[in-house]
């Protein structure tokens, strides 16, 4: 049995043990748990449309925090970007979307959503804005109404470049397999 210690003599380790004991006895509701400790929401596979991969992402991101990058077209100052994205955030707030906004550059902002299931609806709103150059969501770049024609073409070709690069990686891997020490000895 441990000796009874005066509370004034407790050090950090004693306080940590006391906190652990309190938490063990504490019943925490599921909604109060941090997001990474909550069980994932069940996915209703009957709502998934196999022709639309976005429908799968919508269901898997439902109830999770998600961030999207938004680029403002033209060459705005940071203050202009702040004003424009503030108008967008206000419009989304009026449509009952919980969105937080963070300016990360002179023409870029991050929109953080508490519920990622609404991300594609918000993306559709943003790309229809006059000053929106593009929206990046889950690694996919969607050109906006304010994007220049050259940017729209460039954004569409990005996935093709990635495919070409993967094919090049496969070739380099096959070359690496052929460059074994035994093969070099045979050549000598």
From TrEMBL:
Q: Which Pfam families did the record assign?
A: Mesd (PF10185)
Q: Which superkingdom is the protein from?
A: Eukaryota
Acidic residues compositional bias, start-end: 23-32
UniProt main location, coarse: endoplasmic reticulum
Q: Which Gene3D superfamilies match?
A: 3.30.70.260, 6.10.250.640
Could you tell me where this protein is found in the cell? Endoplasmic reticulum
- Which GO molecular function annotations are given, in alphabetical order? low-density lipoprotein particle receptor binding
Q: Bias category Basic and acidic residues: which stretches?
A: 146-188
One Gene Ontology cellular component annotation? endoplasmic reticulum
Sequence similarity: Belongs to the MESD family.
Query: What is the designated name of this protein?
Result: LRP chaperone MESD
Gene it is expressed from: Mesd
């Amino acid at each position: 049995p441990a000796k009874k210690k005066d509370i004034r003599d407790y050090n950090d380790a004693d306080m940590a043990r006391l906190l652990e004991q309190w938490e063990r006895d504490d019943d925490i509701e599921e909604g109060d748990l941090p997001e990474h400790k909550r069980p994932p929401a069940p996915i209703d596979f009957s709502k998934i449309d196999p022709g639309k991969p976005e429908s799968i992402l919508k269901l898997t991101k439902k109830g999770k925090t998600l961030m999207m990058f938004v680029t403002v077209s033209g060459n705005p100052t940071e203050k202009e970007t702040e004003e424009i994205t503030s108008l967008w955030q206000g419009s989304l707030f009026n449509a009952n979307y919980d969105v937080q906004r963070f300016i990360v550059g002179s023409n870029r902002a991050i929109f953080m959503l508490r519920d990622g299931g609404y991300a594609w609806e918000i993306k559709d709103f943003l790309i229809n804005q006059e000053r929106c150059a593009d929206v990046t969501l889950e690694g996919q770049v969607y050109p906006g109404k304010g994007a220049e024609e050259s940017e729209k073409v460039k954004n569409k070709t990005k996935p093709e470049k990635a495919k070409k690069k993967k094919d090049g990686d496969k070739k380099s891997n096959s070359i690496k397999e052929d460059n074994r020490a035994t093969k070099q000895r045979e050549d000598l």
